[in-house]
# Entry
Amino acid sequence: MFINLQAAYWMIGSLFILMFILSTITLSIKVNKKRVEKKEKQCLSEFRSYIHYVQSQLDNADRLRAPAKKLRTFEQKVLQKKLVQLVDQLEGVHRQKLLTLCDDIGLISYNRERLKSPWSIVRIDAAYHLGILRDSGSTSTLFSMLFRNKIEPSIYIIARSIAQTSTSTPEMKSLLRYLVENGKQDSHLVADIAKESEADLGTVYAEFLNESKLEFVKVGLIGLQNQVDFHIPENIHRFLDSDDREVRILAAKLLTISMTLTKEDVEVYMRVSDWEVRHHFAEWIGNAELKQYADLLNQGVQDTNWLVSRASAKSLIQLGTKGFEIICEVAFGNHGEQGREVAQEFMEEELKQSIHRFSNLADITDYNQKVYIYQKYFGKSDEYLIKSI
# Structure
């Protein structure tokens, strides 16, 4: 009994000591954080006039001057934090001018030294900043750092920095290959990282479409959506028959972005077996206001899939009086019973909404045209009186 009691006392005492140590550490961290924040605030206050000078001189042709005094390490960190925020907000010549200033201040050499730190968190932070500073001289070091690290979230920070610093197409191709082949790949994340590069990646994305591994194909399809001037390969349509759902959707999006489709192409795509592809094309016709494809939405409203039917009806409404007449035809039953209920709903809702959209003569004329079309199929109705002007 005495031994058990003594053991309990020892346990309680040990817990109190442990709690005291943890409390002391926590308090020390909070105090240190407060002290650093106060020091940063004071330092920023000293830099206020200089930061104002930088912002006001960005439009001038002259090179931005560095601070008059030599900066201590802490001052470099504080000023870097502010300048990096500005770099992220700027583009073109303004950003380049600010990047030159960062080099003059010594921020690039400062972060290059930090890449040699024994602490992983310091190296990752340095890689992050060198990416924002677009330091092309660090690309090879960042690649070595990437290859040494295990596949974990931090490698995407390094990878993004490589994309920001590299202007070489072969380097970017190697980076994308490494991420796809060695990571727990997310094709959208990989393509998003690639967007940070100034290298021309159109040919790389096109090559990826011929890879057997689907993740490469996905990265290629996503990447080509951002290559406005790149000639889209003509065989993209083959991916609409892929067994992978995401590949089919990405291919459909790329086809509509390319805007090189014929009416015959769209008619085929509105009949593919994947309802999500049909849904995408139905939405695209309305959002892009492609009135030349209005009659193709006729079959879309009658689609057996409810979502495709509604998307097609909505797109017809977006196409003005031409689309509204097709909606009335379907609602009247000229094409059978399929889709008739959906067409009726959208037709009546559009007439009700049009009444509340009057703001000029064109709105009233548009409404009167729709009422005329409605009456052509369903006869006179007191519910939809033609507005006189």
Q: What stands out?
A: The CA atoms of residues 113 and 174 lie 26 Å apart. The radius of gyration is 31 Å.
